[in-house]
Amino acid sequence: MVAFGVGLAVFSVAANESRNFTHFEDALTPSKFEITLEQLKSQAMTYQTRAKSPTGTANKEAAAIVDLFVWFQPAYLTKIGVQSAHSRFSEMVDGVNQAFLDSEIDVSIRLVNAEPLRNVSDELPLQSTIDSDGNVTQGALDRFNSVVLDVNARSEGPYYEYKKYAAYGADLVMYARDFREAEQTNLSLGVGANGGQISAIFDRYNGLSDEFMFESYSIFKHVIGHNFGGDHEVGKISTLTSESDARATTCDGGKNTIMWSGYDKNNAVSVYSNPNIQLGGEFCGELGKTDNTRVINSNAVITSNRWDAPDSLGIISFSQTGYTANETDGTVTITLTREGSLSGESEVELAILDDSATVGNDIAITSGVKRVFFSSGEASVTVVLNLIVDEVAETQESVNLILRYPLAATVTATQAKLTIEESGQVNPGEVDVSVSEAKVEGQDVVVTLNRSNGSDGEISFEVATGIMTATADLDAATADDFTALNTAVTFADGETQKTLNISTLDDDLVESTEGFSVMVTAKQNSIINNSQNVAQILDNDEVNAGSFTLSAADSQVNEDVGTLELTIDRTGGSDGAVEIGIAVEGGGEDFAQLDTTSVVFADGEVQKAVVVRVLNNNSTAQTTQNFSVVMTTPETVTASVARVTVTVLNDDEATQTSTADSGGGAFGWLSLLLAGLVFRKRQ
């Protein structure tokens, strides 16, 4: 579990007695500093209730729109990339707005601007320090507070950060800094002024791996909750002035609600405490005791009116949805238009996002962003982007253009595409993929990519192995049979062949021939043949299937025995699966039957039972009968005993029967007739 930083403790409040909550005529030099909700509530202030025009990710249906300004530590942008940072915080805003919606909080956050700090050095430690002589060395947090919020931070006037933040009139301000373990001994991932306008996130995401990718999304929801007066669970509150029911709790089987003081991604729910919400059969709050939702809702309007955003002076948009240039042109002109009120100055940020073309390789702009300014009365502005002419023959490429963070304006038609044509005729050719013939386990499978019918420019492919589906002729290899591969292959301009080796593993298992898939995917619109392939692995382990012996429990049985069990034993080896045929020969009337004509020994299996049913005639006395059970094996397998003969003993007694030509029978009937005649005559 990772601890959150505590509200106001880490942020100093600028000592400035001038407090101004209305729209400033001079947007660059307003008097402004950190104000808490308690201070706002304690003063009879009248707020200008002009509705803010929500754009971007803000929920337009929310009762309160709260503007957020994010300042990036430059080292943080270097670490994860400029566009990654902007996308990341845009997604964080989406996340907190979804959490508000799920928690029944009628508030929406709007990201109005995000840019790098100019006056907070990357070298500054996070916290201020005091040496033994009492000398104070200002840390990054106090420095941030000073340059952003204190109009009197220096004698020559406020810093750029103060002017820019004041111009936007944002309600909340956030400091985004890369996490530095050496300065974070308590592993604090974020801080938020409870009921105040300032917060900070110390992001552990490095821009490369998935580790910590979504951690700061949860931290963001937490510190923003502090800005609205939300607080931790009982016993962990960040300030004694928080409202009595501004408390976090658990629900859904003991999982923590958002404002819990520690972060555990496996034990959290994405809602603020609310006694009206049930998760997993548990209420996520208790009325009057744990209800951060009520606290945030009650402070929403005050927070949204902390400072007034400037009036919108017109609508800024791209003049067209697509722009095209040839790289030999050297430059391309992007035109932005402004409609509506042109009575004052306004500005917007133009962002160039990588696609098949990239910033720095195809377009000469370092950060991928450019601020565009409209003067009073100006209805259109042109932006000139410098194109890079390289010696690499390329196909048609493009970047995406985005308008965001308008000041004193709104934006529509926020997206356009810039297409860069290659300077000459380009023929990148096509690529054929082949896989080497079956390899004995332990040998490398060779994948060859041949480029033909052209070799202009750089083209790239992804080569990946996978587990195939077994077929009637080929078993599927497992992950233990080869070294998985997932890599990029790039042909340089003029290059025509690439090879990759895939290692197979030599084990001691007796196996059939196995296969795995090799898939090649084009990263551009390149022609690729035979993109799906199968590599085969031959087994090199000696097979010893063993010898098979057939035996019967008894060689003589009575005809009423019912069933007789025979056993097939496998000795001297047990490699591989073997199918054994079984049949009955002979038997006369007392014959035998089998329920199956074959048995299959699995790899390693050493014994099978075979049941023979002996049919009983039940009445007829007959001589002893014999039948045989015969075992047949594949040609590659030996049988030490393949036949067993069983004698069936008759158990019926002999009975004497009469026939028409039997002398004894005729005499008996004649004697009876004669006796009858004598008896009648004497009467």
UniProtKB/TrEMBL annotation:
The keyword Protein biosynthesis does not apply. Gene3D superfamilies: 2.60.40.2030, Collagenase (Catalytic Domain). InterPro entries: ADGRV1, CalX-like_sf, Calx_beta, GlyGly_CTERM, MetalloPept_cat_dom_sf. One of its GO terms (molecular function) is G protein-coupled receptor activity. SMART domains: Calx_beta (SM00237). One of its GO terms (biological process) is cellular response to calcium ion. GO terms for cellular component: cytoplasm; membrane. Residues 300-402, 416-521, 533-632 form the Calx-beta domain. Keywords: Calcium, Repeat, Signal. This is Calx-beta domain-containing protein.
